[in-house]
Amino acid sequence: MPELPEVETTCRGIAPHIVGTSIDHVLIRDARLRWPIADDLAARLTGQRIVSVERRAKYLIISCDDGFILAHLGMTGSLRITSLEDPVKAHDHWDFMLSGGAVLRYHDPRRFGSLHYIAGPQLQHPLLTSLGPEPLSEAFTGVYLYQLSRRRKQAVKLFLMDAKIVVGVGNIYANEALFAAGIDPRRAAGRVSLRRYELLAAHVKRILASAIERGGTTLRDFVGGDGKPGYFAQELSVYGRANQPCIGCHALLKEVRLGQRTTVYCSTCQN
DNA sequence: AACGGCACCTGGTCGC
DNA sequence: TGCGACCAGGTGCCGT
Fold first, then answer.
1. Has A3 been annotated as catalytic?
2. Which nucleotides of B are covered by protein (CB under 7 A)?
3. Which one of A89, A99, A196, A253 has the fewest CB atoms closer than 10 angstroms to its CB?
4. Residue A186 CB closer than 7 angstroms to strand C?
5. Angle between helices A194-213 and A142-149 (to 10 degrees)
6. Which residue is nearest to nucleotide C7 (CA to C1')?
7. Distance CA A235 to C1' B1 in A
């Protein structure tokens, strides 16, 4: 899935086409997502004007006149602007037909994504309540990571991927940031120094920003709001490169499982 | 409270 | 060529 850069790319890609339009028609072809799409969602959305689109964590938040649309892309979701002439494919779950003729179409083979509508002036939802800070915000710093990690025995990679600690960092970017910071992903979070957390926070910010500039990472099927893939995959230093030479020291990269997720690192450069 | 593990899905790839 | 095993960008929830 989409990690933060891919969701941000989607957000920026669809925004110019949907903000200011109204939702003329909602077509739910397959309501089976992580949670079934509510039966009344189409009726509640029809006729509303789209005021803005933003990203929070890996969620897209589409603000309308009378409430908020909350969408998550799961592992294989993509949201793009298309037209009515574009043939519908398998796993195209829903369409919003917009004034002006554009269609916002959601595609998700594995169905881990979601779509909710929250009525009212306040964006409040259980899925949003315990999220940590945005990694690209000023609240996310080395000091912050250091303070929250004291006495924690969990591997630092899992700590970094915990959305209660910081949002948006998934498996790809956690691997990359830890490599860049020279930290062994297996190291207990509580045994990483302040100095190294400062390095880690800086690399997380740098790598995410760079990936956003490249339109995200496309491994298989991710496409941005314009339907085009991202180009950050060619910049990856360790993700997907187990048993290949480290770009720094040329030793072969190692692979381990941490929290059921494949973890790749250099045992020479990371400790 | 913190942590590990499972579950939810489809589809692509790999080895036999 | 076919088939089963395994893996994949996430995350809520369960049990310990």
1. yes
2. 2-12
3. A89
4. no
5. 130
6. A262
7. 38
Q: What pLDDT does residue A221 have?
A: 72
Token code pair at residue A254:
């190692």
A213 noted as active-site residue: no
Residue reference for tokens 């799961």: A74
- Tell me what pLDDT residue A271 has: 96
* Catalytic residue of the set A2, A5, A135, A185: A2
Q: Which stretches of chain A drop beneath a pLDDT of 70?
A: 1
- What pLDDT was estimated at residue A1? 60
Pairing between β-strand A92-98 and β-strand A23-28 as defined by DSSP bridges: antiparallel
- The contacts of residue A241 (CB under 8 Å, 6+ apart) are A253, A264
Burial of A134 (0-12, 13-18, 19+ CB in 10 A): middle
Domains of chain A: residue spans and CATH: 4-128 (3.20.190.10), 142-265 (1.10.8.50)
